[in-house]
Amino acid sequence: MTLEEIFGEGSLGDDAAAHAATSARIFVRSQMQLALDSEGATGRRLTAREALDAYGLALLETVVEEGGVGVITDADEPAKTLSERRRTLRLSKRELAQAAQVSVDDVTNAETPGEVVPFRTIERLAQALALDERTIGLAGVAQGDHALGTRLRELRNADDRQGDFITTVTDAAWVVARQSELSRVLGADRDMKSAFGRKNSQYGTQIWKQGYSLAERTREMLGLEARAPIESIYKLAQDTLGIPVIDTGLSADIAGATVLVGSSRGIVLNTEGANRNILVRRMTIAHELGHLLWDPDNQLEAVRVDDSADLGRRNIRDAVEARANAFAIAFLAPLEAVRALYAERGDFHDTAAAIADRFGITALAAAHHLANVCDLRADEVSRVKRANATVTRKWEMREIRDNLLKARVPSSRGSRFALLTMQAVRKNLITLDTAASWLKIEKHLLTDLF
Q: Does the pLDDT of residue 230 top 90, yes or no?
């Protein structure tokens, strides 16, 4: 069978990928099979490119020849994968149901071998468990990142984390994996994180100096001016480094977390508690970048959670966290610039306020940084006033992210992920049906954008 026969009349190109990209043919994935689209189909509609990437050319050829083909090779699937993943994460059926926005009965049915369940229910559960819903149930394909699942279970055991923490992180991990994939396929980011392939495992004496040094080195590698502020840490992380930053709501004691999903690395950023302040969020992102760019994988442990109380502290026993704190403050407010401002102004409080304003950090962080860098009396720090509202508003405007859908989609699915998803629709990489599923929005609310 020729490529044009598989992908339909009008498809063009030298290979299967090119034909798929120009194909108007639509496939449908249900619980048990992949088929050609039909008027009464209720499963997930996929573009030819989606179907090719997920299932391969040989299977698509069979679908075209026969109209449909079974994709589940084990009678226990996808029930077995869903059930085992939920138990690995120590989630109750109720906790999973709440996260996936389905009923407890839906979870029970989906975990029962042989029970026929709407594929849209299955994919909601898969996403909530950080599984690839497109290949769920295929033998050996969608079992999920084992290290991620194990680490989350350990966190729940050790820290007595609630189920909503686990499901929030797994949801973010799913977005990290999908956004990384979209960025790669669309060529949307500079993706300079590969320049940081050699990690730094030195956590010895003078850990703060090591953090300072890594911050200076990072700025040089990224081509940032020595004394210049970082206008948007969100853009730098995502557009320049290709590291997804996923906004989501966590308990107030958590600042953020790093996640590793397969080969994808990302930042889970809390937007609650102290992190409602954009100046604190900038510091949190910089801290997590210190982890992701420089810490070896064995220090990140698939998921590393950073507590709000530890962010920015110098006298902290955990050397990994101490270095990331030093990295964060020096990355945002370079030492050379801090010294220059103090030499120019002379007054501690005036300089601290200028640092906060110029570099987009809190006044307290600026004061501590100034005292540390210029070896000044620390008792002045306690008298520093909070940054005024004008400073906060200025940095909020600089950090505004493009979000076509604004408040229509969950925060974890908004901003850059939403933008890339819509670009993928326009390039015929995914269907509008898929986009609605990924963004957790009704499809008709997306049609006006096309």
A: yes
